[in-house]
Amino acid sequence: MDETVPNYTFEDFTPGRRFDFSKRTMTADEIIAFAREFDPQPMHMDEAAGRASILGGLAASGWHSSAVMMRMLFEAYIDGSTSEGSPGVDLMEWKRPVLAGDTLGGHCEVLDARVSRSRPEIGIVRMRAEVTNQRGELVAVSEYINMMRVAAKGADHADG
Amino acid sequence: MDETVPNYTFEDFTPGRRFDFSKRTMTADEIIAFAREFDPQPMHMDEAAGRASILGGLAASGWHSSAVMMRMLFEAYIDGSTSEGSPGVDLMEWKRPVLAGDTLGGHCEVLDARVSRSRPEIGIVRMRAEVTNQRGELVAVSEYINMMRVAAKGADHADG
C-alpha cells in the first residue's frame, strides 16, 4: 500500500462492478480469541457449548464475521484506494453460522454511486457484500456506504 | 459467567427496559491492533494519516467500535443470560469518529419482544444500542435482534 499512488478512486465505482474476495479459513483459535475480547458468549468460546446452542458448533461471533468481511473488502478494492471510510451499514445479516474450519469467500458489488452535494471532492458509493462458505451458502450479507475521494485534477488516473 | 445459572431470560425483556454500559477508553494501541488485523486503512493505523483524513485523528475502524459495543452489551445484559445470538442488525450507524483516548459509554434499550411462532422456546427481542463519547455525543447506534430462550418450566426465575 502506497498512499501517494491511489489505485481505485470514486470514478471506478460504476453500478454492477464486482470485486471478488480472497478465501479465508476461520480457525477455532481465532474464533475464540475474538470472542474472548469482544463477545465471550459460550457458543463463541467453547465447542461443546456451541454444539448445544442453536448455532450447532463453535461459531464465530457475528461481529467477527463482519470484521473478516471488512478485511476481505480491504483486500478486494480498498487497499491503496481513496476510501475515506463509512458512515455505517444499512444491512448486516448473519444468515448462517460460521463454524470453526469453514472457508469463507464471496464478492462485493457496486449498487450505486454519486458525488456528495455538500462536498464535491467526496463520492458516496453504496455497496453490497456477500460472504459465502465452502458449500457456496450465504453466511453474511451487508449493504453499506463507502465514501471515496474523486480523482485529483490532473492526476494520472485511467478514468480521470 | 456460570452457564448453569442463567440470569436474564426472554421474560425480562419488556419494552422500554434499559441497561447501562460500563465506560471504556479506546487506546491508540488497541485501535491499531484491530485495524492491523481487520481494517488496515491508513486513518485507522497512523495518527498523521488520521489527521489528514475526514476523521480528524487516529480513528477506530467502525467495525472496531461495533465490536466494543458488543462487549458492552455482553457486560450489560448478555453475560449469564439465555442469549442464543443474533441473525443480524437492522441498523449500524457510525455517527462520529471514535478517536484514540475517547472514553465510550451509553446504554441499550428493549424496543419490542415476542415469542417465535416456529420455535416457542425462543424469544425474539429487538434492541437499540447507543454508544456515546466523553462529551455525551452519539458515536454509534445499532438496532438489532437478540434471540433469547424463554425461562425453563419450573426454573427458579423471578419472572418465570
TrEMBL record, chains A, B:
InterPro entries: HotDog_dom_sf (IPR029069), MaoC-like_dom (IPR002539), MCH/BMMD (IPR052342)
Xref: CDD domains: YdeM
Domain of life where this protein originates: Bacteria
Gene3D superfamilies: Hotdog Thioesterase
One Pfam family from the record: MaoC_dehydratas
UniProt domain MaoC-like: residue ranges: 14-117
Protein name: MaoC family dehydratase
Species: Shinella curvata
